């Protein structure tokens, strides 16, 4: 084969070089090609790994989604639980760490923010009620809802459950759980129920609306008390749980109004692993 040599005039070469450089910049080298996205790597609305209640990133997978969520799969004191199956005992028979809890009720108007987090409807309601446990104060931060209930009573699941999350200055958590069953319309929930945000990430600000937290709770303050965890990632343990023995009632229409926005946001019950569940009547100060 005869070799041939081509000579490109200098002027033409100068004209072609800028175009050649642009072409090279437009094609990234193979060594820096972007990897394919992971199946469940989408960020959650508040940052961190995506999680939910479906099969792909649901409760059975939470512990494998991130090392931050390891307690969801490896924890030994997880929530929720089936309460009646735990054979509740009486507080005085418990260890000294089980001090009676005192609920302090604040009756005045508050500005409240109602948010659709995508996982629940949450009401941010600080500077309201507080729990006192062994002299440590746990102010109320927010309350939110699950449908159906997360805790069960002897295997019975309620249409909904409300969680009132309290946090001490040292960062410790205490949660009051309230079962919700179907019954008459409940006017105490109306200030929030009339403004339920339908879209994920949306928020409604309620200014000077009287939300009476005391009225959201049953009159009977008897509780089931045990040590557990958050029921959502990262499933942190060391949470003090007080589940009210008496449910409150919402009408079928009120329950359906919530379920039209959020439904199926309940974690399955977790093994008790030898934990003790106590019965306790929560005292109240006004």
Structure, explained:
- With 286 residues, this protein is α+β, with helices and mostly antiparallel strands.
- The protein has six helices and 14 strands.
- Strands 1, 2, 3, 4, 5, 6, 7, 8, 9, 10, 11, 12, 13 and 14 form a 14-stranded mixed beta sheet that branches.
- The longest helix is centred in the first third of the chain and has 17 residues.
- The chain is globular, with a radius of gyration of 27 Å.
Structural features:
Carbonic Anhydrase II; alpha+beta; single chain; 6 helices; 14-stranded mixed beta sheet; 286 residues
Instruction: List unreliable stretches of 5+ residues.
Output: 1-8, 12-46
CATH topology descriptor: Carbonic Anhydrase II
Amino-to-carboxy terminus distance: 103 Å
Q: Examine the secondary-structure arrangement and name the CATH architecture.
A: Roll
Overall structural class, as computed from helix and strand content, comes to alpha+beta
Q: Averaged pLDDT, please?
A: 82
The run of helices and strands is HHHEEEEEEEEHEHEEEHEE
How many separate structural domains?
1
General shape: globular
User: Which range best describes the helical content: under 10%, 10-25%, 25-40%, 40-55%, 55-70% or over 70%?
Assistant: 10-25%
Fourth CATH level, the homologous superfamily: Alpha carbonic anhydrase
Give the radius of gyration: 27 Å
- Summarize the biggest pleated sheet: 14 strands, mixed
Q: Hey, roughly how much beta strand do the residues contain? A: 25-35%
Q: So how many helices?
A: 6
CATH class: Alpha Beta
Number of E-type strands: 14
């Amino acid at each position: 084969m005869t070799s041939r040599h081509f000579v490109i005039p200098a002027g033409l070469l100068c004209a072609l070089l800028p175009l050649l450089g642009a072409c090279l910049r437009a094609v990234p080298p193979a060594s820096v090609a972007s990897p394919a996205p992971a199946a469940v790597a989408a960020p959650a609305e508040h940052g961190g790994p995506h999680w939910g209640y479906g099969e792909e990133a649901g409760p059975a997978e939470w512990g494998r989604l991130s090392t931050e969520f390891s307690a969801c799969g490896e924890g030994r004191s997880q929530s929720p639980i089936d309460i009646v199956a735990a054979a509740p005992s009486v507080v005085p028979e418990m260890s000294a760490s089980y001090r009676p809890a005192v609920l302090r009720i604040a009756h005045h108007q508050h500005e409240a923010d109602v948010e659709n987090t995508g996982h629940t409807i949450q009401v941010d309601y600080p500077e309201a009620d507080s729990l006192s446990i062994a002299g440590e104060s746990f102010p109320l931060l927010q309350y939110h809802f699950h449908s159906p209930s997360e805790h069960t009573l002897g295997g019975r699941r309620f249409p909904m459950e409300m969680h009132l999350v309290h946090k001490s200055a040292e960062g410790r958590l205490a949660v009051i759980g309230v079962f919700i069953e179907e019954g008459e319309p409940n006017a105490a929930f109306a200030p929030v129920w009339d403004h339920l945000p339908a879209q994920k990430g949306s928020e409604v600000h309620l200014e000077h609306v009287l939300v009476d937290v005391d009225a959201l709770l049953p009159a009977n303050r008897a509780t089931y008390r045990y040590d557990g965890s958050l029921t959502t990632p990262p499933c942190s343990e060391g949470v003090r749980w007080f589940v009210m023995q008496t449910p409150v009632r919402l009408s079928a229409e009120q329950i359906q109004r919530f379920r039209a926005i959020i439904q199926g946001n309940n974690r399955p019950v977790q093994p008790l692993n030898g934990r003790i569940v106590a019965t306790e009547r929560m005292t109240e100060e006004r």
